[in-house]
Amino acid sequence: MELLGLIGYGFSSLIYLIFFLLLLASRQQSLAGTLTRLLGITFCLASLVSCWQLYQGFSLLYVFGLEALKNLMLSLLVLGIKLRSESLRHLFSQRETRNYLLAVVALITAAAFSLVYRQSFVWLFIGFMALSLWPLVLLEQVFRNAQNRARWAVWPFVFGIGSILVFDFVMYAQGALINQLDFNFWYLRGYLSAAMMPFILLSSKRIKNWSSDLFVSRDIVFYSSILVLSGGYLLLLAFAGYIIRFLEGQWSEMLSIAFMCLGLLVLFAILLTQNFRNRIRVFISKHFFANRYDYRLEWLNLISAIERGAGDDIYENACAALAEVLQLDGCIYLQLNNINRLAVMNHGQLKPGTASMQELDGLVRYFQQQSWIIDLGEYDKSPQTYQDLKLQHHTLRNENIEVLVPVYFQQQLTGVFAMTRPATKGFLNWEDRDFLFALTKQLGNYLSLQEAQRQLAQTQQFAVFHRMSAFVLHDLKNIQAQLGLITTNAERHRENPEFINDVFATVNSASMRLQKVVRQLASKSMEKIKEPNQQVEVKSLLEQVVKLANMHTPQVSLRCPAGLYVFTDKERFAGVLMHLIENAQQASDSNKKVQLVGEKQENRLILTISDKGCGMSQEFIREKLFTPFSTTKGNAGMGIGVYEARQFFEENCGVLSVDSEVGTGTTFTIEMSLSNYQEIGYNNHGKIINC
């Protein structure tokens, strides 16, 4: 055991000497940096003297003196961090520091008195217990009061120093109880001290005012961690062997030796397992070091690359952006269709043949079950890494396909990026895979969004077509109504010359309206084709509309002065008036008349269409009356007549308003600007001014 302790303290002194030299090379001038260097050299000297004591066998009091100095330096360092001191003067001027120094002096005095006069080590051990407990309390306060970022930086230091202090506290507590040290603990202190150095070194890198220029290799931390795990495992084996020997059976010594041999074989098997070593390496890289990729910059680069997309092909733009960011020689996107097969969506430098597409289709189920990037080069060297994957990878690699990255949207596989090898050394590691997943997830969202926008555009086109069809159908319905009036009155008025004239006028009007419908269908426009505006005498137009309307019941009465003119599209004006009057007739009983009144107010024409029908609720007027495709007529109406009427009057600088009450009736009010028949305004380009 003495040899084991000698090796442990010797290794610890070497480790802390390296730690001290690294800190010295950083040339950090802050108080924390200075105290850390002093702590490092104190740890080195204490371990070296402990090693020399085991070799020479001199008194442990010399070692205890250095141990006391080490605890003093440690407490001053933690106090400096807690109090945020920038100099020794500021640190020693603090009341907490002075109280601590007074307590140290009192403990040293009590220990010296106990040793000289009573030949007892109890007070010495109690003093070291206090020297171990005090910095533990300070460490807890520092960690608890630190912010999240500061906790990330300081927790390795707290863990490393805290482990050493807890071990010392337990050892000295046992010594105080039995008035002597348990040298089994003493021999193991060197190994524990050496094992905790990487954690102290890691915090010295993370905390800027300790050592901002200090570099810690990932391999150093990896191998140190392996040593720590191995040491912990060996301690566990030793404890188990001690339990076996404690049984004091006849075969206890042989069993303990066999157990140790078996445990060492298991340790060597674990350390030689590549998968275990890879897991440790990834864990250390993820939790102790910054990422290889600056995701903020890479995100901006990807967005810029997408924005620089030259064409409208979203798949080509996505692959070009990915190729630019990863410095690829070729990239294609394969989209998953409804029958679980992949289809190439862009034509780049990679052109998989029939055999390659069959291999890629066979990967769909694997990607649906395993969210894992396939590196074909890695699969060639170690296929056991990809569980349950059977792939003729040479077929794909012969066509320069080296990496396959699945793309998911809402946790469903949507496609696969097939690419050449990125500009990285060797196979993809965990950082490359995380980075690829981040890029392709963003591009998958981009593609899904663009697809949704494309489908929305198509839906809007269909909506425009259906809306145009509704307007056309509405016009055809009105034309059919006009022609239907002819056939209805033909039997009674066939011999009437005036009726014959009206028939020809109606047919001519219907023909002109049909021509407009045909032109609108040919232009594929939702908007009405506008005819040139003309001067319209209001009373004569109203008389023609009322004449047609009075072919149905209830009858319409008209009151309007002559000589009022408006400048508008005569056919559309008559059409919207006819629709409003028909609505009033349909809402009224046959024995109640509909009133159409026109009057002049200043330079405005006021038309009112009133009925005594069923009326409308205010909610219907507010939410549905002027909304297209909303109607109270069921399948008999299209629900666009009132909407078209309001749109027409707004185009002609007019207003359409409604006042209605359920069970009482409805009044539509139209306001339009009047124009003087002798004075028509023109602008500088010779065009007639409408408003």
UniProtKB/TrEMBL annotation:
PROSITE patterns attached to this UniProt entry: HIS_KIN
Domain Histidine kinase residue range list: 471-676
Pfam families tied to this protein: GAF_3 (PF13492), HATPase_c (PF02518)
Protein keywords: ATP-binding, Kinase, Membrane, Nucleotide-binding, Transferase, Transmembrane, Transmembrane helix, Two-component regulatory system
Enzyme Commission numbers on file: 2.7.13.3
PANTHER family: C4-DICARBOXYLATE TRANSPORT SENSOR PROTEIN DCTB, SENSOR HISTIDINE KINASE
Listed name of the protein: histidine kinase
UniProt organism field: Thalassotalea mangrovi
High-level lineage: Bacteria, Pseudomonadati, Pseudomonadota, Gammaproteobacteria, Alteromonadales
